[in-house]
Structure formats: C-alpha cells, structure tokens
Automatic annotation (TrEMBL):
Membrane topology: Multi-pass membrane protein
KW Hydrolase (keyword) present: no
Cation efflux protein transmembrane domain residues: 154-357
Residue ranges crossing the lipid bilayer per the database entry: 214-238, 250-271, 305-325, 331-350
Protein name: Proton-coupled zinc antiporter SLC30A9, mitochondrial
The entry's keywords: Antiport, Endoplasmic reticulum, Ion transport, Membrane, Mitochondrion, Nucleus, Transcription, Transcription regulation, Transmembrane, Transmembrane helix, Transport, Zinc, Zinc transport
Database matches in Pfam families: Cation_efflux
Keyword Ion transport: yes
Catalytic activity: Zn(2+)(in) + 2 H(+)(out) = Zn(2+)(out) + 2 H(+)(in)
Source species of the chain: Catharus ustulatus
Length: 467
C-alpha cells in the first residue's frame, strides 16, 4: 500500500485524471462480474438448469451454439436487471458433445478453458486488490483534510491556553485549556468514527458500520464530561477553597481573543452545514440537531458553541478579577465553563443513546408507507409494521405481508397464452404429466410473486423520504 501511495503522489494531474477514469471503468467491470458470479452461485445446486454466460464456459460451448435450444426465463435477484435466460443442463451437455465430436476432445477443451479461467480469476482478484488500495488512498481525502484542520486548530488553542495558564495561574484559563484538550481528543475520535462508518458490510456486520458515528459521538460526550467538565469543576472548587492572586492577564486576553475568532469561524461553518442538511431533509434547524441526524456535525456544532460561550464566560470572570482584584471571580469562571461542558456532554449522551437504541421514523411517514402497501391490489393485509431510522439516510423497513394469491395468479395468467395453456391441460394424461405441468407453472407463479415483492420494494424506496 505504501509503494502504491507514493506512486500516485508524484503523477501529473492529467495522468491522475486518466487513472481515475480507468479506475471507474475497472470498478464497473468488476461489479458486473461479481454480480454474474453471485447469480451463478444461486443456481449452482440445481442440476436441471444452468445460468448463461459463466457456466457455458465450463461446459465448453459458445453462445451461438444455443440458438436452437429451449430457453427459460428466470427472475433476476438484482434491481437493475429484470430477467435472464437459462437452459436445461441436459440439453447443453448434449450440445457440447455434438460440437466437439467426442468425449476426449470435449475433455481437452474443458481442461484448456479451466486453466484460462484460473488465470482470469487471478487477474480479477489482483484488480480488486488494486481497487481496494486506491480506495484506501483516495477514498476519504476530504474527511481526512477536514478533520486535520479541526485537530490542528484545537491543538494550537490547547497549547497557547496552557502557556497562558502556566504564566497567569488563572483557573478560568486552566478550564479553557482543558476544554481545548477535550475538543482535540474528541475530533480525533470523531475522525475515527467517520472512517469506520464508511466501511463496507461484511458477513459479521451485514448492515454495515454506520452506527460507528453514533458510538464515536457517544464516547465523545462521555469524554467531554469526564475530561472537560470534571477537571474544570475540580480546579474551580480548589480555587474557591484556596484562593491565590493571579498574575498579569494581558496575554491571556490576547489568547482568548484568538480562540474566539477560530472557534467562531468553525461554529459558523457547522451552522451553515446543518442548515443546508436540515433544509434538504425538510426539517427545522432545531429538529435536525435534536434528532441527531448527523452526529459528527452535531458534536462539532455543540463543541464550538460551548467554546464560544466558555471564552465569553472566562473573559468576563477574568475581567472582574482584574478590576476588583478578587480571585473568586476567576474560580467561578472555571465552574461556569465546567457547567457548559457538562450540559453539552449530557445532550450528546442522550441523543446518541436514543439513536443507538433504534429510533422509529416519523409517524406520518410510517403511516404513508403503510397506506401505500395497503392500497396495492396484490396485498390483502399487512401486519406488524416497523421502520427504524438507521442513520446516514438509511431506513430499515419490516412488515408481515399477506399477499392475495388470486391477484398474483391472475397477473401471471395475463402474461400467458390462455389457448396454449388450455391445450397443455388437455394433453395431460398421466400423474407424471400433471406433476410436471403443476411444477412448471407453480415455479413461474412463485417467480411472479418475487417480482411483485421487488416492485413493492422499489415503490417504497421511491416514496421514502428520510427526515
């Protein structure tokens, strides 16, 4: 991975653009091959039918050789293709023997194609590895840059505030330094949560890792409470019990002014981002924040809002100490900053806990989806409807659906030649012929039911607006 990254860092922009285009084409090609392979695996256990394309190669036959064979349409398990064509295995095996003339010639051709297939798969896996390395290097560049800016800003604030506290001995400045340290640690934690949430699902986590954002934000809230609020309260109480005079606060005021500018700028960025996202979801600013639709942005918003308020509180209390000479005001400022941090942490813990527990979507939206299903002719009744907001604009919808078998069967019959179907029925003379007839059309009706389920899922996705 390191060698690959260095190779990309030195290329010209034009070469990089061509490489990106080549990557997209390769990515599409790998997706299509993976899709075909998954379809093949679906029908691999059935000895009577076989999938076109991939299994044809293993039987050493070409697509043009199948023109005269019986074709069977099957419903595709993928959204972007409705049906695909399969053939009877016995027909294809007989045709392959006819094409190659003898079992020995057929065996030699199969061996040759098997070796070519192994080499092809090795190249395919090598390309997939290349795509993975490309994604690792380029995939989260924006997130890494954004997080690095936030980390650098909070780290510098912590360093200068710490110097000001060492120089002045101000309890309020100590609380501000601890606040910036907590923000720095939390930004690193949020960056980790964002990168983990972007991971693709695996067999152990079939629904993906989107909840990592909520988990990181929850830990962030606990960290703000323990590190920020706890230490600020402790230092403020110590200052009240054992007051001591503070030194010149001029440099402390300068550092607070710089912190106010940097924190205020990031606060405006967070506010604009939340307004844009809330407008896209049809929510108010308050609803978007309270429902924790984007936990990472909410943490940044609340941290920066608390930072701006805490700078104002610290500056006010330090100013009172400078004017009156009473160090108690400075200690009260430390307690005030700790209270702000405690409030922010409590809000973060509550909202992210609610999200992790599994929050239902809006009742109006759930009712609309229920009515959509109930109004469909193929649905007789629905029961036990549940819809959970999984975050990141994803909803898990579940319902027990009672399908109307007569409507499904009628939909199937509308696509058949009724006169030909009647002739097939009249030709049935034995129990074996009756069983074959029933199995043929029974399987087709089940496929029709699957197609109806796919259609309902598409309708739900079209009508689903994640708030």
């Amino acid at each position: 991975t390191t060698t690959f990254s260095k190779c990309f860092c030195g290329v010209h922009n034009c070469k990089w653009l061509r490489l990106v285009l080549a990557y997209r084409k390769l990515h599409f090609f790998v997706q299509q091959i993976s899709k075909l392979w998954s379809i093949t695996q679906t029908y691999k256990s059935n000895e009577n039918i076989m999938i076109l394309l991939l299994q044809l190669n293993s039987l050493s036959i070409f697509l043009s050789d199948l023109d005269q064979l019986r074709k069977i349409k099957r419903r595709s398990p993928h959204d972007d293709t409705e049906t695909f064509t399969v053939y009877l295995r016995s027909d294809v095996e007989a045709k392959s023997l006819e094409v190659w003339g003898s079992p020995e010639a057929l065996a030699r051709e199969r061996k040759r194609r098997k070796e070519a297939e192994i080499k092809y798969r090795e190249n395919l896996f090598r390309n997939q590895r290349l795509l993975w390395e490309y994604k690792e290097f380029f995939g989260n560049t924006k997130v890494r840059t954004f997080s690095s800016v936030w980390l650098g800003k909070n780290g510098l604030n912590f360093f200068f505030k710490l110097l000001a506290w060492v120089y002045t001995g101000s309890a309020s400045m100590f609380s501000e330094a601890i606040h910036s340290l907590a923000d720095t640690c939390n930004q690193a934690l949020l960056a980790l949560g964002i990168s983990q949430s972007a991971r693709t699902p695996d067999p152990s986590h079939p629904y993906g890792f989107t909840n990592m954002r909520y988990i990181a934000s929850l830990i962030s809230g606990v960290g703000i409470f323990m590190m920020g609020a706890g230490l600020s309260w402790y230092h403020g109480i110590i200052g009240l019990l054992h007051p001591h005079p503070v030194e010149s606060l001029l440099w402390a005021y300068c550092i607070l002014a710089g912190s106010l500018v940097s924190e205020g700028a990031t606060l405006l960025v967070a506010i604009n981002e939340i307004r844009r996202s809330a407008r896209a979801k049809g929510l108010s600013f308050y609803q978007y924040v309270v429902q924790s639709r984007d936990p990472s942005t909410n943490v940044v918003l609340l941290e920066d809002a608390a930072a701006v308020l805490s700078v104002a509180v610290a500056a006010t209390c330090m100013g009172l100490t400078s004017v009156t000479g009473n160090p108690y005001y400075d200690s009260v400022g430390s307690l005030g900053v700790g209270t702000l941090l405690g409030t922010v942490s409590a809000f973060l813990i509550y909202t992210n806990t609610e999200a992790l527990l599994g929050r239902s979507i809006e009742p109006e939206q759930l009712q609309r989806l229920t009515e959509l299903l109930e109004s469909d002719p193929v649905v007789r009744a629905i029961h036990d409807v549940k819809a959970t907001d999984m975050g990141m604009s994803k909803v898990r919808f579940k319902a027990e659906v009672d399908f109307d078998g007569r409507v499904v069967t009628r939909s199937y019959l509308e696509k058949q030649d009724i006169e030909q179907l009647l002739q097939e029925i009249q030709q049935v003379k034995t129990l074996e012929e009756l069983e074959a007839f029933m199995l043929k059309h029974g399987e087709n009706i089940v496929d029709m039911l699957g197609a109806e389920v796919d259609r309902l899922e598409k309708d739900l996705k079209v009508n689903l607006t994640v708030y």
